[in-house]
Input
Amino acid sequence: PLAAAAGASGKPDRVLDGRDPLAALGGGDSPHQFIVSYLSGAAALRAGKWKIVRGDSGAAWELYDLQTNPIESRDLAGSQPKELERLVALFRQWESDVHRDASQPVPYKR
Output
């Protein structure tokens, strides 16, 4: 959708997923249920006021309520296990969806 807005066309060998965010960029509602960041095992997922974060694929997930703690200084993983479980399940579903993508990822070089 962003490529189309810029006048570009996609490559036929790439599978594009996602939703059109143009309304949100113009001040409307986001079409996304959640947003994921992922790089070399480090990951974060944000859904509404909640955010989970891990430093690498072997690390424990941390949970933050961004509404009451926007600087992420109080990890609520121990006191909110059901919320943590819900968000980790969303992340795992996202991860599974990404792995089904027919496109090969571009290697990240440090």
Notes: Strands lie at 35-39, 42-47, 50-54, 62-65. The CA atoms of residues 4 and 49 lie 31 Å apart. The mean pLDDT is 84.
